[in-house]
Amino acid sequence: MIVTAWNNGKHYKSGAGYGLKIKIAGRDENFFKDWGNIIIYLEGFSNPFEVNINKLSFWSLDCRELINKDIGLWLLENKKAPWPKGNPPKIKLEKIKDNIFEASFL
Known about the structure:
15% of the residues lie in helices and 35% in strands. The longest helix is centred in the C-terminal third of the chain and has 9 residues.
């Protein structure tokens, strides 16, 4: 699925405040509430990490973000963040198995 980089409006060098915005259809087809967490591998990063999806905001109509500082660091290190207003990078988020995903830049 194609997802969009997300930021909460604060651009921390620590990577905090960044994530991936998932479309409703992509969320409903690829994620399950009972998982609690998902594991993401980022292109070019050696260590996967967990992201909490056991929160009301992820399952709401408005939010739907996977938020983790490692996503922010990945975006920053690859010069994808910060981005021009209204033009966040697009990212391919591929389901590998169950709750395991891999993210790569388009």
